[in-house]
Amino acid sequence: MNDCIFCKIINDEIPSQKVFEDEHLVVFKDISPKAPVHLLVVPRKHIASLNEADESDRELMAHVMLTIPKIAEQAGLQAGYRTVLNTGKGGGQEVFHIHFHVLGGGPMPFA
Ligand code: AMP
Ligand code: ZN
Asked: pTM for this structure?
C-alpha cells in the first residue's frame, strides 16, 4: 500500500489533475488518455482490485458507481460514456488500487 501510486495521488504526495473529490473518492485525469475525456474514479480506501473488495465495501462501491453519472455530467459527457473496471493482470489492470475508467467525448470505441 505504501508504494501505491494512486494512494500517493490521493494524499497529494505526487501531482495529478483532480477534477472532483469527496469524503470517499477522488477523480483525476488519466495521465495517458485513451479518449478526449479519460477520468479515473478512485476510492480513497486502498482496495487492490475488485477481487479484494468484500462485504464491508458494499456501500463504498455503490457510492462510487452512483457518483459516476454526476462526474460524467460535470465533464460534459451528456452524449454518454464508457465505464471500465480492469481486474487483475489478465484483465489489463496495471495499477493495483481499484479504479473505474470513465471514457468519452469522441468517437467510439475506446480502450
Ligand atoms: P489499469 O490498467 O486499469 O490499472 O489503469 C491504470 C491507468 O492509470 C492507466 O490508464 C494509466 O494511464 C493511468 N495512470 C498511471 N499512472 C498515472 C498517474 N500518475 N496519473 C494519472 N493516471 C495514471
Ligand atoms: Zn492505493
From this structure: 0.97
| Most ligand 1 atoms within 8 A of CB, residue of 87, 94, 101, 102 to mutate | 94
User: Does residue 28 lie in a domain region?
Assistant: yes
Q: Do the beta carbons of residue 25 and residue 41 sit within 8 Å?
A: yes
Question: Residue 91 is placed in which grid cell?
Answer: 484483465
Please give the pLDDT value at position 2: 74
Counting the structural domains of the chain, the total is 1
6 Cα–ligand 2 center, Å: 5
Structural domain that includes position 81 = 5-104
Is 111 domain-assigned?
A: no
